[in-house]
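Before a computer can learn anything about folding, someone has to put a protein's shape into writing. The three-dimensional part falls to structure tokens, numbers that each stand for a local backbone shape. The protein below has been through that process, and both of its lines are reproduced in full.
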Amino acid sequence: MTGPVVFKDPPGGRKAVAVWSIGVAVYFVAVIFRTSLGVAGLEAADRFHVGASALSTFSLLQLLVYAGMQIPVGLLVDRLGTKKVLTLGAVLFTAGQIGFALSPSYGMALAARALLGCGDAMTFISVLRLGTRWFPARRGPLTAQLAGLVGMAGNLVSTLVLAPVLHEVGWVPAFAGSAVAGVAVLIPLTLFLRDHPEGHEPPAPSGAGGGFVRRQIRDSWKEPGTRLGLWVHFTTQFPAMVFLLLWGMPFLVEDQGLARTTAAGLLTLVVASNMCFGLVYGQLIGRRQSARIPLALGTVALTAVLWASVLAYPAPHAPMWLLATLCAVLGTCGPASMIGFDFARPANPAERQGTASGITNMGGFLASMTTLLVIGLLLDATGDDYRIAFSSVFAVQALGLAHILRLRPQALRAERTRPPLAAPPHPAPDSPRPTPA
């Protein structure tokens, strides 16, 4: 028969869950490795004989590599497919973790963290694309939120498992031993993971070289949904990222006068809250797409109100109930940032999903790097006045909010006029029609 062939949604089902779970397991291990330094800051300072500023360079370099790799990784996923990129990422972050365990000097340890960040950057976009290729479109928000939830579980493993192991057995056995997890996920990844179900192969991107790269980036960026996704991710993710990655512990201990164990408990509350709200946000958006903007803007507003309440609380310290509420609200930032992908995904065809996700995923990490640096500079300039330094959060939120409000009408208008199902190019006359789901 002639005429356009409209491909059905991917079938989902148990096989989809099994294949997707392999990809999510790789991401889970990547997050354990990514956050492992967060529980080993004091040990790292002693091992490499560095101060606080040099220690913070580990986190900043890792974020810089991660953010800088997002568009290249998206292009690689679109060109090579999920399995090849995810396999390369697992090899790189495992090598980085082993290198970090064995590094005898600060410089070599920095190089190892950069290698780890490079491999880590290849995981999340690959998992997102895996979800879009194996599950129906209506399941997209939930699979994305579940992937983020599993990532936060990796953060908990670093806190609850790696930290005590590090104190028990020492630096090299703890970090080198954890690298075994990277080798373990490589086995099912190479043996069983498939890019897509049979009969649901996306159209191959045409062209090669610089022309392909420019076209993929240009066409993705032209879509208002991609740009809106970037700014939603930019505005929502960074408050929790900055708090968990570097400045939360010093703020709670040095400015709020909490014991380190109490502060660690509040950081764990952020992670636990993130995991709970991830399920809620995924279900809400999966059932009602109109909830995306209200959830994103509501998260930004609530985060700003809680930050302002803590920072404006009269000296000497904010009460514990207010700090706990702030940490619980910060847990909504991760799920809200995933809404950015729910704007970029329907705005782009299958052959551009990796590139569009890479552009979106840059947002939160660019905001996080900027805020990490600004807070550090303001702390130095004001003699460790955390209230002034953390007020920079509001400026970054305002910048992102202005772009969200500007792009929202364009993106929603484009969504309303876009066909619900894309029709790929006509198949060759002798090629079989895709098997209906």
Observations:
- The mean pLDDT is 86.
- Residues 224-255 form the longest helix (32 residues).
- The chain has 19 helices and no strands.
- The radius of gyration is 22 Å.
